[in-house]
Amino acid sequence: MIGLPPVNAFVLHRTPYRESSSLVRLFVPGQGQLVATWRGTAALHLYQPYHIDWQASGDWVTIRSVDLAGKVLRLKGQALYLALYLNELLGVLLPRWVPAEALFGTYYATLRRLESGESAEPLLRFFERRLLEQLGFGIDFERDRAGELLQPERHYRFDDQNAFLQDPSSIVVDGFHGQDLIHIAHNDYGSPSTRRAAKQLFRRALALQLGERELLSRRFLQPLVSPSHSSGTPNT
């Protein structure tokens, strides 16, 4: 790592632009998402740490130089599809010109841990949680909408304001056990019921932000999803 420039960008998406240029969506910690043009000959790859020198004129950004800024990440198989899911979430939801330093660090760490073969589901749920917080729609896992502490023996419903409401019903049909919510708060995904609850919860919370927009990466991931969770294949 000695002599390598600091990481300041990831490429979220790229597409040909005019005859000899590319239109590139960048994730930059101090500016959030940027859309830039690149006329250089070096290929810009997804999921790789870069140091990118760019110049802005209003909202128009031009990339002047590109250097790989760390160990090449070799994602393959399931990890590659999950990284595509992360990129699509960021590309759709991350605002332009809004600093996102903490989320940038979470994204980089998630890619590295996916590469290392760590269990993907806790990584995805943690990233989704941090993304919602970055967007200003973080979920309060400490208290319900009435201000009372979440209790492990109670049942809760999730409303459209990212808050929990106590449910007097003894059967959770479209809600959550308090114990699962407490596990999620501590990023403890050892229980199958907690993993199911977290997937349902964050998917619903993200749906409130996505609206009618469909994530294409979920189509690619669907064939990888086993009917049994024991396979270890996560469902986004």
Automatic annotation (TrEMBL):
Gene3D superfamilies: Nucleic acid-binding proteins, Recombination protein O, C-terminal domain. GO terms for cellular component: bacterial nucleoid. One of its GO terms (biological process) is DNA recombination. Belongs to the RecO family. Keywords: DNA damage, DNA recombination, DNA repair. The keyword Transmembrane does not apply. The keyword ATP-binding does not apply. This is DNA repair protein RecO. Involved in DNA repair and RecF pathway recombination. Pfam families: RecO_C. NCBIfam families: reco.
